[in-house]
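STRUCTURE:
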């Protein structure tokens, strides 16, 4: 469930700390209508080693091909198996990864110096040729990578030395550099890619990367197992657990039962419907971590009823966000003022509070919303919202939107689809036909909010409704050419203002990331950085 690639912003007031870490980058507290909670980037450190652990995913990964990995389940697994040129840390900083350093000698050139002596899981040594093959694969239409648009400004990626890679751009693109800490920067063995062919990333072809764990087995429909990579290059992240078994449990109640029974030692993205139960069990603990995600309504058709700004404004005004937070997020969260979460602004956290204060608060005014619908001549017109059992909050939000629409004169109809069909909406344009709205969990993979706002550019892969605004496109290009993080955040704030004004995406709410850890384990990062940080390597025994 996502809109785009779509916390370390650390908010100092109890009213908003629900969504992020504290102002120093460490902790924050919030109420959000539920019991008080604290947001931290990590759980308590492990005290000992484990032979094995079992981890629950809410769905089976549809692939382990890094170039196609565009959602939580595949990235949660791959974070431990494959690595990128750069790395996002649990407190949402970008640091060197497989590239030990980098340089930007001119606005259109990036040079990456690779670590020496890094080996793939088959024992072969990583070289610049592997990096070139891995990155350019995103640019090949035959690959079908959803990350292809991230490389739209690339003129060439070349081996400029045995351990050096140079990227030449047609125009400045700071965001591409930052995204090398996510799937676009993943490094796979070039020889293995050639050998695996079309089976790469599947149960037959597997993968061969450099991470602390290697793929051991994949029993489709049942489980996936990783084993410790003994020759892993980063001694600070040497795995504390021998094997990690992933099980796939789509039903939220069954997943909760697995946590309570101990058949699953833990899992990210705790079912919101079970938060209260899991926060009060002696069988383990729920931790809340930094998050770059916000729940939104993405408009999929600007030629239909929602093509009129007044109708979008009216629907936004008719939403009782505080009650939606209670029902959909277990009371742990706050109404959203913008499509991006505050936690996505980690590059310049000291400025973020001012940016968000400058935005209007979400207005809940049914009477005014009904009037806007009438002014637009949209009374009685149909709006189709897709819903699914993929996650309980989808149904909750869908019902709330339908009820809100009815109050203001819109005929909001719900179209229920299977979980796999819901996911396809974000990668297949044909799956969006006949739909006006989709509920998303739009998140950034990096701590730069510009990443999220790139997906509203004209023609971008993540611009699902094909919204187009020349003012917005020009503002994006200015921001993406700005190397200074503070100045870039100012330019991104201008993009945010346009998005809030024009509502191609209707913001709903923000909530912290969550992880459940059974009583025998600890050490997991708690936030969304787990999508690219080797989180399983830090998990170990809770008792020595």
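SEQUENCE:
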């Amino acid at each position: 469930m996502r809109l785009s690639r779509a916390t370390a912003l650390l908010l100092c007031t109890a009213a908003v700390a629900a969504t992020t870490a504290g102002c120093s980058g460490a902790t924050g507290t919030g109420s959000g209508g539920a019991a008080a909670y604290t947001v931290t980037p990590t759980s308590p450190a492990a005290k000992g080693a484990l032979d094995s652990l079992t981890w629950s995913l809410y769905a089976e990964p549809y692939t382990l091909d890094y170039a196609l990995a565009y959602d939580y389940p595949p990235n949660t697994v791959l974070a431990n198996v494959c690595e990128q040129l750069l790395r996002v840390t649990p407190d949402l900083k970008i640091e060197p990864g497989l590239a030990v350093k980098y340089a930007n000698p001119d606005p259109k050139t990036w040079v990456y110096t690779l670590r020496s002596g890094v080996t793939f899981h088959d024992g072969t040594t990583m070289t610049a040729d592997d990096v070139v093959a891995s990155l350019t694969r995103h640019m090949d239409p035959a690959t079908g990578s959803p990350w292809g648009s991230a490389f739209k400004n690339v003129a060439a990626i070349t081996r400029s030395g045995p351990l050096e890679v140079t990227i030449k751009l047609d125009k400045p693109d700071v965001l591409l550099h930052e995204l090398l800490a996510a799937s676009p920067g993943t490094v796979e063995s070039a020889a293995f890619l050639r050998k695996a062919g079309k089976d790469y990333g599947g149960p037959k072809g597997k993968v061969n990367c450099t991470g602390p764990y290697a793929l051991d087995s994949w029993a489709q429909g049942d489980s996936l197992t990783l084993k410790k990579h003994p020759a892993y290059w980063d001694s600070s992240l040497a795995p504390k657990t021998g094997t990690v078994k992933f099980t796939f449990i789509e039903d939220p109640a069954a997943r909760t039962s697995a946590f309570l029974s101990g058949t699953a030692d833990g899992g990210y993205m705790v079912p919101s419907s079970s938060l209260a139960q899991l926060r009060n069990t002696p069988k383990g603990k729920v931790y809340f971590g930094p998050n770059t995600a916000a729940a939104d309504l993405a408009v999929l058709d600007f030629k239909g009823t929602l093509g009129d700004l007044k109708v979008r404004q009216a629907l936004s005004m008719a939403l009782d966000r505080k009650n939606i937070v209670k029902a959909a997020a277990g009371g742990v969260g706050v109404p959203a003022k913008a499509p991006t979460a505050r936690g996505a602004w980690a590059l310049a956290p000291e400025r973020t509070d001012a940016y968000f204060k400058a935005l209007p608060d979400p207005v809940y005014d049914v009477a005014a919303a009904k009037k806007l619908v009438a002014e637009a001549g949209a009374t009685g017109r149909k709006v189709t919202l897709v819903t699914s059992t993929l996650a309980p909050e989808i149904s909750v939000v869908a019902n709330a939107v339908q009820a809100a629409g009815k109050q203001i004169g819109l005929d909001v109809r719900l179209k229920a689809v299977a979980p796999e069909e819901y996911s396809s909406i974000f990668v297949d344009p044909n799956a969006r036909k006949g739909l006006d709205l989709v509920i998303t969990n739009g998140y950034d993979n990096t701590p730069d909010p510009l990443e999220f706002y790139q997906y509203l550019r004209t023609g971008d892969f993540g611009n699902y409704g094909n919204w187009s605004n020349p003012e917005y496109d020009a503002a994006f290009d200015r921001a993406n050419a700005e190397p200074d993080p503070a100045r870039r955040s100012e330019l991104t704030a201008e993009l945010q203002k346009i998005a809030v004004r024009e509502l191609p995406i209707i913001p709903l709410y923000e909530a912290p990331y969550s992880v459940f850890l059974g009583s025998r384990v600890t050490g997991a990062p708690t936030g969304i950085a787990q999508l690219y940080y080797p989180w399983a390597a830090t998990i170990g025994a809770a008792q020595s």
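REMARK: Residues 1-29 have pLDDT under 50 and may be disordered.
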